[in-house]
Amino acid sequence: MTEQVTRATFDEVMVPSYAPAAIIPVRGEGSRVWDQEGKEYIDFAGGIAVTALGHSHPTLVNTMREQAGKLWHLSNIMTNEPALRLAKKLTEKTFADRVFFANSGAEANEAAFKLARRYAFDHFGPEKNEIISFYQSFHGRTLFTVSVGGQAKYKEGFEPTPGGIHHCAFNDIEAVKALVSDKTCAIVMEPIQGEGGIIPADKEFAKQIRQLCDEHNALLVYDEVQSGVGRTGTLYAYEQLGVTPDILTSAKALGNGFPVGAMLATESVAKSLAFGTHGSTYGGNPMAAAIAEAVIEIIDTDEVLNGVKHRHQMFVDALTAINEKYDVFKEIRGMGLLVGAEVKEKYAGHAKDFFSHASNEGLLMLVAGPNVLRFTPSLIIPDEDIKEGFARFERAVAQTVSDHQ
């Protein structure tokens, strides 16, 4: 008999690095989930931009079952068919020539940052090792990735962290110019900052960053862990900026919830991760690769990608209508189905109040810092779920406004 667990069980057995909500979802279908009590929720969170095809997608369930009956794991002293098929798809559909598979976004970024330094070491020597990143960026929770990330709170208590990393304001090209030098090996950026507040890169800024990298023999690294795999309406967001990076990282939606990450690179850059320089026990395992291949096949279609643009407008229109009625947001921004609504000063620091009331109303959503509400639903969420979700969200907004009067 399965042992009954509750939210209190978390406090008894888990490291307290998370503070999860009281609800415990036990079943999902499409963009709806049900908790232990049978209460239904509409999912505008998507596991933080992960379940891009919703819950229990039948094609992915069948893919998992089929692969589970063949091979789950192979060590990296050999390769496997699903990994090679997935790598071929990713290189055919992007700028990249080579792929390294990992298990998460943090691992993909770790590989990317190591490759950037190794490439500079190979071609220019050990002095060219500095990385430029941006305030409010987020690249993962390993020691290297929190160091490149631009949020000091994630480094606190874990110092000394790796050196040679500099930060400046996002979308401020003059600030970057003040930092870049011949010692710079890479500039790392998100095409749209996710955890930092849903802040898209200006196109001109992105183009000038590419130019600075070329002028200083530095690599351009795009972290597309959150923005990739159709989230912004193209397979990867760089396609909309008119800029091609040298290295790109992908995870989250790539496996629709099954752990998988990928680092993509050009052939000339990838050569620096020569035999023995980096590895991953589980990276590119047959289960993860088979599922990710099915995800890419479904998402990289006109039907899904054009549908993202349609749904983006539905979200913006619904948020705008609610704001006209309740006057709670000072800006609604984002790309595709990575949408942020920044609250006005009256609600500064209280984004979680909206989140909590939404949960009570049967809506799952997110925050991005203390002042921004974040929406990252399935890319194929039905229109009727969007409408019903915003009906619930409006009730949550009304309750929050009442609380603050």
Topology of this protein?
Layout: H1 7-13, E1 25-29, E2 32-35, E3 40-43, H2 46-49, H3 58-68, H4 81-93, E4 98-102, H5 105-124, E5 130-134, H6 143-148, E6 165-168, H7 173-179, E7 184-189, E8 192-193, E9 199-200, H8 203-215, E10 219-223, H9 238-241, E11 247-250, E12 261-265, H10 267-270, H11 286-299, H12 302-326, E13 329-335, E14 338-343, H13 351-360, E15 363-364, E16 366-367, E17 372-375, H14 383-403
Parallel strand pairs: 3-15, 5-6, 5-7, 7-10, 10-11
Antiparallel strand pairs: 1-2, 2-3, 4-12, 8-9, 11-12, 13-14, 14-17, 16-17
Helix pairs in contact: 3-11, 4-11, 12-14, 13-14
Q: What is the CATH topology descriptor of the largest domain? A: Aspartate Aminotransferase, domain 2
Main beta-sheet annotation = 7 strands, mixed
Radius of gyration: 21 Å
Share of helical residues: 25-40%
Strand content: 15-25%
Oligomer: single chain
The total domain count is 2
Binding site for N(2)-acetyl-L-ornithine: 141, 280
GO molecular function: identical protein binding; N2-acetyl-L-ornithine:2-oxoglutarate 5-aminotransferase activity; pyridoxal phosphate binding
Cofactor: pyridoxal 5'-phosphate
Modified residues (N6-(pyridoxal phosphate)lysine): 252
